[in-house]
Specification:
five-stranded parallel sheet, two-stranded antiparallel sheet, 22 helices, 49% helix, binds flavin-adenine dinucleotide, binds ligand DLZ, binds iron/sulfur cluster
């Protein structure tokens, strides 16, 4: 019987398991742009445009390679609203009930495909290095699922930067060298920017027309939209950005949105770049003496360590993960996350760049917007939906553990052994934001005090019962307890006043 092979927007890889299982002579590739996928959260217009353009180009290439591709465009009048309906429509037309698909990266879609009244076979996504089975075996019986140990297994499994059974340079982790604050200037020209071609131009018009109300813009669109371009970008970054990637990985600068970051997450996650291909290219640069060991190891750890570990957690923890909220935070997401005014320069800059680029780097996501949401007690589900919508690299398998787990501690500490919180001090040390801020980072109380300073202690005070015995937080509580009582009272009062203003919708 003829099979329909459903290829999703983030499955644009030649090596996809569903394509490998298909017969070019008889099977039909189904791809579709549908409102259901574009609207389950209000995705950033650049993310939608990137995916639609990349999907159209991938479909054209498959067709050129001899596949029968049935592609539904969003503005075709007979395109249904959901992927399930597309499958039913295509199945009826082809007189078949058999569907093959590589496992989607969101429980929502897995469940939808499992309940569509067709014979749907879901294959493993073997673009990832660790299978579900490997991760489950690794996790089995462990008290704590710490990434560092998983990463070592992955180094052994891939052989990346290994000398026999020992790590290159005799250390697994060179992070000690990777914590430099914002540099005076950046020597890398940033990600490769691509001219819009005909396919992309048509998609940009469509997205401008249909998604005008979504947060973000398609103006100044520069993303790669096919494998060839993504590879050009990768080579450009390895030459210009990788050598200093490690040093300034945690730094933040108001006028340097990309610093030395790779900007490859969106390409790998959509399938335009392969994770091992990227790591091997980085390893080769290090071997050739073109990148220091702290940069190469640090980067490879992000991909074979963090990225794989995060996916493992998503599938291990199951579909209820995104509704976890152990800290019982219930404040609404403030309007400044959607671009309304805030006096906090760090937040304002991070949101502005997110609006323009559908991108912010890890420390901006974790220690600015994420840190604020956690300290202020924002409902983690709303935080999760925001991150899922606004970043071009966001799909639930990778976004949810990073937000619910790493950033908001809403899973109770599966990923993070303590909450990622900081006062303004950390932001001041790592960035140049505070210089241009209406608040004073050195002020610990009073009308000009940096809100991160106030909320930091407020968070620790209100969650004392949960965290007081956490050995990594003992120092924080000791500092708080040593402060004189008047000072503590003033901090908590000022923090309450700030939160009241936030709740009232005042500009803060
Ligand atoms: P670089 O800084 O150059 O890092 C290289 C690559 O390593 C990334 O492209 C990515 O593939 C991988 N990587 C690094 N850290 C992680 C991580 N924690 N989890 C998974 N992969 C990682 N990453 C996403 O791909 N999608 C998301 O939706 C996403 N949401 C995040 C939300 C929060 C709150 C936080 C703290 C992190 C999130 N991350 C997410 C991880 C990380 O911030 C992005 O992968 C990274 O910023 C992408 O930019 P880059 O390609 O320039 O990365
Ligand atoms: C994110 C996204 C968007 C915006 N649109 C589509 C689409 O129209 N068609 C499609 O096949 N995929 C789209 N995607 C990606 C899917 O949402 C993604 O495959 C799932 O969330 C699983 O990761
Ligand atoms: Fe952010 Fe506080 Fe610095 Fe302002 S002073 S930029 S709010 S950390």
């Amino acid at each position: 019987m003829v099979k329909l092979v459903l290829v999703l927007g983030d499955q644009l890889s030649d090596s996809l398991s569903s394509l490998k299982a298909a017969d070019k002579g008889s099977d039909i590739i189904v791809m579709a742009e549908v409102m259901g996928e574009a609207e389950y959260v209000k995705h950033h217009p650049k993310k939608i445009a990137f995916l639609f353009a990349a999907m159209r180009k991938f479909a054209a290439r498959l067709e050129k390679d001899g596949w029968d591709v049935q592609y539904s465009k969003l503005d075709d009048p007979d395109t249904p609203a959901s992927l399930s309906e597309v499958l039913l429509q295509r199945a009826e037309a082809a007189g078949t009930s058999k569907v093959v698909v590589t496992e989607p990266g969101e429980w929502r879609l897995i469940e939808a495909l499992q309940t569509v009244p067709l014979d749907v076979e879901i294959l493993q996504d073997d673009r990832f290095i660790a299978s579900h089975k490997m991760f489950e075996d690794w996790a089995e019986g462990r008290k704590a699922l710490r990434m560092e140990y998983f990463y070592r297994e992955m180094r052994r499994k891939t052989g990346l930067m290994m000398e026999g059974d020992k790590p290159a340079g005799e250390k697994w982790n060179f992070d000690h060298d990777n914590r430099k604050p914002a540099p005076g200037s950046v020597e890398y020209s940033g990600p490769m920017r691509f001219q819009t071609d005909d396919v992309t131009r048509t998609v940009l018009d469509l997205v401008r027309d249909r998604f005008a109300d979504n947060f973000g813009t398609v103006d100044d669109f520069w993303f790669a939209t096919d494998q060839g371009q993504a590879r050009q970008h990768l080579a450009h970054w390895i030459k210009g950005g990788l050598p200093k990637f490690g040093d300034f990985q945690d730094a933040m600068m108001g006028d340097e949105r990309f610093l030395y970051h790779a900007i490859v997450g969106l390409y790998i996650n959509a399938g335009l770049l392969d994770a091992m291909e990227v790591c091997e290219a980085v390893e080769a640069a290090w071997k050739a003496g073109d990148a220091p060991i702290n940069a190469a190891e640090g980067f490879i750890r992000q991909i074979i360590g963090w990225r794989e570990y995060i996916r493992g957690i998503y599938f291990l923890e199951g579909p209820d993960y995104t509704s976890r909220n152990v800290l019982q935070h219930d404040r609404d997401l403030p309007a400044f996350f959607w671009g309304k005014k805030t006096w906090m320069a760090c937040v304002s800059k991070t949101v502005e760049q997110t609006h323009d680029e559908a991108y912010a780097h890890h420390i901006q996501r974790l220690m600015v917007t994420g840190n604020f949401a956690l300290l202020a007690g924002i409902d983690p589900h709303q935080v999760h939906e925001w991150y899922l919508a606004v970043y071009a690299d966001a799909y639930e398998w990778v976004e949810a553990p990073n937000v619910i787990g790493m950033s908001q501690f809403a899973d109770g500490g599966i990923i993070a052994s303590k909450p990622y919180i900081s006062s303004g001090n950390y932001i001041d040390k790592m960035s140049d934001y505070c210089k241009g801020c209406s608040y004073k980072v050195k002020d610990k109380t009073g009308p000009d005090a940096c809100p991160f300073n106030l909320l930091y202690w407020h968070f620790l005070d209100r969650h004392r019962e949960r965290f007081k015995d956490n050995h990594r937080m003992g120092n924080m509580y000791r500092v708080w307890d040593r402060m004189d009582e008047d000072r503590r009272t003033a901090v908590l009062k000022d923090a309450d006043r700030f939160l009241q203003k936030l709740d009232a919708g005042d500009i803060v």
